[in-house]
């Protein structure tokens, strides 16, 4: 009887081992997804992995495109600044040339020199006009602390209170942007 029990036990062990081997084979063919608790076949797993790889590839391409866009935009911004600076310098070159000619002429006295300097000032105003730069700060204008820096207060019988009595430096602006505030004296 002991031999029968041993044979039955051996058969039971073989059956259990065969079942376990079958289960192991089935487990290797399927992957358990932790999130949903469902099992996914090897084919589905391969399909999902391929889709993931495709999405990853798209993401990497998009990241590279964004990096290229950022670099290109930065380069264009620098080029825009350089172009604006070149345009500005170009507008002032004739003025600089005329100052050099005036100094080279050797004449520093008389009415001709004064006329030459006045012509250069007009040329400078024209250059500012081309660049949309507006001068402000004239005698008699209302004092505006947003546009003018008051250096001192003076008594002036001809002007009302808080009017510009004297201009030490003109102010300049482009549109609403103040480039330099006008330095003025204000009447009492």
Structure, described:
With 188 residues, the chain is an alpha+beta fold. The protein folds into two domains: 42-131, Hemagglutinin Ectodomain, Chain B, CATH 3.90.20.20; 134-188, Roll (Nucleotide Exchange Factor Grpe, Chain A, domain 2). The protein is 60% helix and 20% strand. A three-stranded antiparallel beta sheet has the order 3-6-7. Strands 4-8-5 form a three-stranded mixed beta sheet, with no helix packed on it. Helix 2 packs antiparallel against helix 3 (110-130). The longest helix is centred in the middle third of the chain and has 63 residues, at 42-104. The model is unreliable at 22-34 (pLDDT under 50).
Which features would summarize this protein structure in a list?
three-stranded antiparallel sheet, Hemagglutinin Ectodomain, Chain B, 188 residues, Nucleotide Exchange Factor Grpe, Chain A, domain 2, alpha+beta, 2 domains, three-stranded mixed sheet
Topology:
Blueprint: H1 2-29, E1 30-32, E2 39-41, H2 42-104, H3 110-130, E3 133-136, E4 148-154, E5 164-169, E6 171-174, E7 177-180, E8 182-187
Parallel strand pairs: 4-8
Antiparallel strand pairs: 1-2, 3-6, 5-8, 6-7
Q: Proportion of β residues?
A: 15-25%
Low-confidence stretches: 22-34
Number of helical elements: 3
Shape: elongated
- Supply the CATH architecture of the largest domain: Alpha-Beta Complex
């Amino acid at each position: 009887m002991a031999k029968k029990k041993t044979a039955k036990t051996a058969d039971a062990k073989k059956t259990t081992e065969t079942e376990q081997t079958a289960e192991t084979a089935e487990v290797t063919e399927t992957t358990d997804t932790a999130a949903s608790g469902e099992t996914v076949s090897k084919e589905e797993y391969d399909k999902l992995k391929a889709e993931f790889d495709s999405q990853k590839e798209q993401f990497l391409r998009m990241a590279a495109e964004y990096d290229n866009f950022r670099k290109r935009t930065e380069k264009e911004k620098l080029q825009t600044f350089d172009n604006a600076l070149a345009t500005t310098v170009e507008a002032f070159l004739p003025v600089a040339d005329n100052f050099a000619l005036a100094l080279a002429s050797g004449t520093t006295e008389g009415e001709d020199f004064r006329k030459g300097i006045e012509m250069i000032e007009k040329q400078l105003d024209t250059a500012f006009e081309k660049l949309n730069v507006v001068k402000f700060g004239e005698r008699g204008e209302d004092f505006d602390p947003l546009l003018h820096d008051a250096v001192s207060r003076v008594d002036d019988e001809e002007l009302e209170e808080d009017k510009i009595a004297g201009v030490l430096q003109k102010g300049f602006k482009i549109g609403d942007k103040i480039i330099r505030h006008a330095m003025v004296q204000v009447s009492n």
